[in-house]
Design a protein that fits this description.
homodimer; mainly alpha; Na+/H+ antiporter like fold; two-stranded antiparallel ribbon; 5 strands; 65% helix; globular; disordered N terminus; disordered C terminus
């Protein structure tokens, strides 16, 4: 009731701000009495806004309480996100059928106008001027949709909210909480699954769906246009996997860490791939008359757009991460954790804005920013800021994720333009199954040719099974629901998300035991060699040597990067790593001394204890690179003492040094002796 | 560049969402080429949005780095908020004079229309329909202001952003971080300063300003209407003190804790009072022709509105706080800190929405919610959640506060409707000085009649000096800048904020030493009796007894509340306090056993150690109330061992018990022996 005169355009915090329904319902005819009436209506509208946001908070609160109950009772068949969807569904039903329809009150009028379009309209209503702002073009078919139930409209958010508010914290958190050790050890496979796999899946699903669409046209089930590009877009949208439920159970049961790394890494990166892929498909606009057929020039332009956006976004994220690392390194900001956390938050957020300002994809930039921050900046933060930043993003991630899932439940009933086509839906389910199969099995076969530690059959089946769809697919699908084809795609995506989260999520625990995937693993341990890989390693004598060589070659580039990172980037950007004075050539002495943090010499032990998860791979590496043998910090640590006791020191040079150091991180290795553990061993 | 088709109404995260300038600049004439052009423009607009938000992030980043430098060098003459304003000013100058004016492109057109007003307009431009939404009424004088520099418009936020996004975290944090012990010990005085003081200050400033306005009219400096209610509104706006800089220095130097509590408590509560006061003044609408003269009915209606809004908001905040406490008590949510923190966050936020939905003031509700959460819920949280919630709101508070102050600096140059009237400004400075004086000195005199521990002269001078204006005054002033008088008030408020933050903030350290206010105080200690109060206490023999009695009477109500809170509310709502089985009558046995947490019996020691700041006053109280003597938990703690050694046990009954217990919290007391320390001793 405060200052009611200003309540015309009520601005509610955070989310509602962007709600499409933020329009004050106002009418007037003349003089002061009407002004009061208008004020009353504006207040009423503001109240409705608050109520609709309260609905979501209530939903989330309920979800949290029920999750607690489930966790408390160790119920695992329903994950929090699945629960959020169920509550969303219930509230959606209530809103849809339980609230009176108030449509017609805000019926739009037409106002013909000269040839130009303006962002601001001034409308003269009986002597008073009212300002209107342009909202966007509206297709003639949608004009009737503007007449909607008031409450339903209030709970409908602008799709961009998902991209610009809810996804960034989720994605940043994914990057920031990446368990680097297992991620990097499987990086090659993860990249292959994420890039090749997503592209394969996108094209297979796209083509299968095009077949389905053709069939629908034959049967007469299609009432409007559905182009090949739409099918491809659907392929891109639905290729973004989000095994959040599976990973939660993995985490809880301490399931195999490598499988976890493969699944998590794939889902994180494939979100980025899917988002850029869908942009590229939208950017695919053949010139001339034949606007929806294949055109080589447009295709290559799309590929160019994909590469450009992806690498640009990647660079943006990496650059802000590096800048943050430098700032936190060269200031003593860590004495003031609040300032440090605030700076960290602002810099990470600015990545998003910077990428958007440059025309790249903010969400993707934020992912790589998160990875960079975890890799470099995290080492410079004070102990308090480390937990602060982690917790801050954890809370934001949790709220955003559950909000999206409860919104999904709600949208099934409150979204007013659903088009459910049984043929399309059944086709889509078959297509995503086939797409996933065509992505996992052949790729795993190819990867296994190069991997020393094979991806076993049960892992492949588990990955096949874990192809859930979630927040990213939803956000991509809801982004554009203007046309018939997009509406059908949106409705189908919703159903696929529901099905996979509930059925697949619920079946994870049985599936794990059925596939004999071991649980209760200490995440700092290596898995024992599975039967397959063990036999392969021991069985083929002459082959293994050749493969070893191939692998060394393919690993060469990565090893180069790895030692570069460890010898130069880490020491420059963080307080850890070997002193630059030892890694840089001697003529760089002065610069090296300036750039090397004094802490490098005395905080190595401390770092090792505090965040072993993050630096296990980096803190203790001795590399013979070029012609100088570099002995790094960690070698004198307690780990080396353990490993130097074993008698396996027969190999020579860099290979040997690498093994020793990485063995330091993986205690089991040396006792088994047959496997060489290299953090990036499988980059095929 | 992702999905450019959807970029028409770019939605940027958080703040920009509500920016007034979020209008895509679009024009079209016909066919596809124009669509592309439109898309380009929309993208351009989206880019500008990102850039403008980046500007603010850059500002905050710069501020953080400079603050660090200042803190590092122990520079105290400039506080972070002052710094944020300076950077804001610089960027404002650059934006104002450094960017090319692009006005005219979005020139509004008039479109006469029939008699009704709609929220949505559909405009037909050469066959295409465009949707416009109502933004609000615009006064004819403002029509030309719509033509603005594009960039300046982009950095101008909707005033409601301040109320609905930036203030709530600041205010909640204030409530949540209230140092309860010293706050409650001075509660009476704080309430008096906040309520009476703010009202007095508002009316004095209002009347003085009305004199100034009359003078301006005589001199011919006034070019438009300026009513008495406007003057009163100005009084309310400018009565919200915000001694953020002073308090920061107090915190850093560990200045006197009671003075800190007085200043902090006053500023927190007087924000709430000022906001409700200004709403009430706006609600003051005399009926009939004479709309801006005094009208008793309207006046009483305003007073009623004030009381209604204030008590309603208070209730809302308290109720959600209590609900959160109950939920966190009766679930084992503390096993999952993430869920707990998320729930805490959601419930606190829902207070705001609930209050707004019911027509109360969200910001005020959030304040009392914060206090309730700190008092009850905090005790139920897990150790991790305690630090998590504190840190979360600390970061949000820090960012929001510095954002507001840097926006203030920016607004001096980018706000396009400034009206600087030298007479009004000088008058305002004199008025706020006199208003503050008329508020502090007489009230302190009256309070000192009732206080045992007097507010000494140097404290009064310091309080007089600390009447800075900040975020709340700015937010209230910017809320409505539609009329001439409001614009003048806004410009004047800005200058007052600048002046007080820079000059007064910078002068705090010299002032502290000039006034001989002791620094380096252990916050858990009591201040030594100052000269004045000491003399008063010892000097007057017969009087003191009478006063003692008066005080006991006035304290009676509060003591009632205190024991009620301790014996019933705390045990019901939290895991601390005495078991209900001992405090409730025996016939409530079953209910008492259900409501009493099992932890009550064994977690007392733990609680004492962890958050002594929060429960020092509550954990160890023995009260003889009614006819049952209740011995509470803390009495057997280590503190009592210390105090029971002294020989001052001569008084009897409840007074004695109270002293012993509160003495347990205040070690110094018993050794001095002349002062009776009661947490609420001064509620005059």
């Amino acid at each position: 009731m405060a200052l009611p005169l200003r309540r015309r355009l009520p601005v509610l915090p955070l989310l509602l701000l962007a709600a499409g329904g933020l329009r004050a319902a106002e009418r007037s005819s003349s003089s002061a009495m009407e002004e009061l009436a208008t004020e009353k209506e504006a207040e009423e509208s503001h109240r409705q806004d608050s109520v609709s946001l309260l609905t979501f908070i209530l939903l989330l609160t309920l979800t949290i309480l029920t999750i607690w109950l489930f966790k408390h009772r160790r119920v695992r068949f329903l994950h929090e996100t699945g629960l959020a969807m169920i509550y969303g569904l219930i509230v959606g039903v209530i809103l849809r059928y339980g609230t009176p329809s108030t449509s017609g009150r805000d019926k739009p009028i037409s106002c013909s106008q000269e040839d130009r379009l303006f962002t601001t309209l001034l409308v003269n209503v009986s002597g008073k001027f009212f300002e209107y702002t342009l909202k966007g073009e509206i297709s003639p078919g949608k004009i009737h949709n503007v007449e909607q139930n008031d409450m339903l409209r209030k709970v409908t958010f602008d799709p961009e909210v998902f991209f610009n508010i809810l996804l960034p914290p989720i994605i940043f958190h994914a990057g920031y909480s990446l368990k680097k050790r297992h991620f990097f050890r499987n990086l090659g496979s993860i990249l292959a699954y994420a890039f090749l796999g997503t592209a394969v899946s996108c094209f297979i699903i796209g083509n299968l769906m095009y077949g389905v669409v053709k069939l629908m046209k034959l049967v007469g089930q299609l009432s409007d246009k559905f182009y090949y590009t739409d099918c491809l877009l659907f392929g891109a949208i639905i290729s973004a996997t989000d095994p959040v439920t599976v990973l939660a159970i993995f985490n809880e049961l301490h399931a195999d860490v490598d499988l976890y790394a493969l699944l998590f890494g794939e889902s994180v990166l494939n979100d980025a791939v899917a988002i850029v892929l869908s942009s590229s498909i939208v950017a695919y606009q053949p010139t001339g008359e034949n606007t929806h057929a294949f055109d080589a020039a447009a295709f290559f332009k799309s590929v160019g757009v994909f590469l450009g956006i992806f690498s640009g976004s990647f660079m943006m994220g990496a650059v802000t991460g590096v800048v943050t690392a430098l700032v936190t390194k060269f200031t003593k900001l860590h004495c003031f954790p609040l300032l440090e956390t605030a700076l960290f938050f602002l810099m990470s957020w600015s990545t998003f804005l910077l990428a958007e300002a440059c025309g790249f994809t903010g969400v993707v930039a934020v992912l790589f920013c998160g990875i960079t921050q975890a890799h470099y900046t995290y080492n410079n933060l004070s102990v308090e800021s480390r937990s602060r930043t982690k917790q801050l993003f954890e809370v934001l991630h949790f709220l955003a994720e559950n909000f999206i899932f409860s919104y999904m439940g709600l949208a099934l009933f409150t979204f007013q333009k659903h088009i459910f086509s049984p043929v399309f839906i059944i086709g889509a389910f078959i297509a995503i199954f086939l797409g996933r199969a065509a992505h996992i099995y052949p790729l795993s076969f190819l990867l296994n040719l190069g991997r020393r530690h094979k991806i076993s059959w049960n892992f492949q089946h588990m990955m096949m099974f874990s192809g859930l769809r979630g927040a990213m697919a939803f956000a991509l699908a809801i982004r554009d629901t203007a046309t018939y084809s997009h509406q059908m795609m949106f409705s189908t995506t919703l159903l696929i998300v529901f099905f996979t989260v509930w059925i697949v999520g619920g079946g994870t625990t049985p599936m794990l035991s059925w596939l004999n995937i071991r649980v209760g693993v200490d995440p700092d341990q290596d898995p024992p060699p599975t039967n397959d890989s063990f036999q392969v390693l021991q069985g083929d004598g002459p082959d293994s040597e050749r493969r070893n060589r191939t692998q060394q070659e393919s690993a060469w580039l990565f090893r180069l990067w790895y030692s570069f990172d460890h010898n130069y980037l880490k020491p420059i950007l963080t307080h850890s790593g070997p002193p630059l004075t030892t890694t840089l050539p001697s003529w760089c002495g002065l610069i090296a001394r300036c750039l090397t943090s004094p802490q490098v010499y005395d905080n190595q032990e401390q770092l090792r204890e505090e965040d072993s998860d993050f630096i296990l791979n980096d803190g203790d590496l001795t590399v013979t690179y070029g012609d100088t043998t570099i002995t790094a910090n960690g070698s004198s640590g307690p780990h080396t003492a353990t490993t130097s006791l074993d008698g396996k020191r027969t190999k020579s040079s860099s290979e040997e040094a690498l093994e020793r150091d990485l063995g330091a991180a993986d205690h089991e290795v040396t006792s088994r002796g047959t496997r060489l553990v290299f953090p990036l061993e499988d980059n095929a």
